[in-house]
Amino acid sequence: MTTELVAVGTEILLGNIVNTNSAYLAEQCALLGLSVYYQTVVGDNPERMRDVIRTALDRSDVVILTGGLGPTEDDITKEVTAELMGFELVEDAHWKEILEKYLKQYQKNNQAQRRITSNNYKQAMVPKGGIVLDNHNGTAPGLIMEKNGKTAILLPGPPNEMKPMFEESVYPYLRSKQPEIIYSQMVKICGIGESQVADEIKDLIDQQSNPTIAPYAKVGEVHLRITAKAQSEKECKKLIKPVVRELQSRFGKNIFATEESKTLEEAVVDMLKDQNLTLSLAESCTGGMVASRIVNVPGASDAFTHGYVTYSNRAKRKCLGVKKATLKMEGAVSEKCAKEMARGGCFFSKTDLCLAITGLAGPEGGTEKIPVGTVFMACCFNEKTVVREFHFTGNRSKIREQAAAHALAMLRECIMEGVNKKN
User: Fold this and answer.
1) What's the pTM value of the predicted model, to 2 decimals?
2) pLDDT grade, residue 102 (50/70/90)?
3) Three-class secondary structure of residue 249 per DSSP
4) From CA 207, how far away is CA 284, in angstroms rounded?
5) For residues 313 and 340, what is the distance between their CA atoms, to the nearest angstrom?
6) Which of 29, 30, 120, 391 is the most exposed place for a label (fewest CB within 10 A)?
7) Separation between Cα atoms, residue 71 and residue 83, nearest integer Å
8) What is the chain's Cα-based Rg?
9) Which pLDDT does position 419 carry in this prediction?
């Protein structure tokens, strides 16, 4: 089935809010095996909305609309869609009762600040013969209208209302329309770039049919989603298994996860905990970004003990023992400084390993010898220190973000190599 997404709201067009709904729905449609060819944003204008919805219904089997289901005059998604599809709006007794209970409780809690007005009951008007979807998180019910082989699905705009409604009611509805199961598995790669990954799997993509491989580039990572279509989840997994095995043989240690939800920092923390290792970080240009990602992982305190943000040369000397001569002769952005930062981090924190980062994020300060984007990273483990030089591009924020992502990948690799050599 072809599916189209329409986000309603002048506030989206003006940039007052970000349209996260369409991104979420597009991903969910992909998981269902629905083909999404168009996404549109339209303001709260009846003529333009009518044109957009009419066009969407003409070229797609299913149109999913978000927003414009509230009680105010500019909330007209339901009215315009019902008119186009030939549905009469009638009062729904069940939803009116729910609405009254909600509004009375709201009035009770807010007393003088809130009174029930007649326009609130606008939300109890539903298309006769349509499907009404309960909203357990707001006052606007969701709606499904089916006619002449076309389906319009209307969902509330707030994501905390839209997402639960989609998962509880719309996903099962759309799933029932699909004759086959769609199942996906993710393979996450770090340490190598998107172009190299694409080159390595070109033959697989060229000959793919079912399952398919879809690459997604992330900062410092590449994700490969393997998707299969079959009569059951078990059959899908059977189709996916040899593809995952082939990817593992090609990318080996660069694969850090085969689970959708697992992050690179979680993979690093898991490795540290499995090996009973302790970690410290010594950051300069990243300013604690790596530490922040590490502590996002529940249980990280079992392995991560110290985080040094030594932004100034004085701090590098005082907290990490970087030599004055190193800073004077080599500079803070140098291989030698990174190495001394990592060694000092291990020494002063008494941890098994320390990763250090020092670099030039810009926008000023670059030279021909050390241009903006130059970053040195060092990892000290088992009394051996490995140093690498990176050159990132982009603005200050982008350079720091790339440095943090590559630092985690380097840390993971150093743990693997260090443990192997130790054993």
Assistant:
1) 0.77
2) confident
3) helix
4) 46
5) 12
6) 391
7) 18
8) 28
9) 61
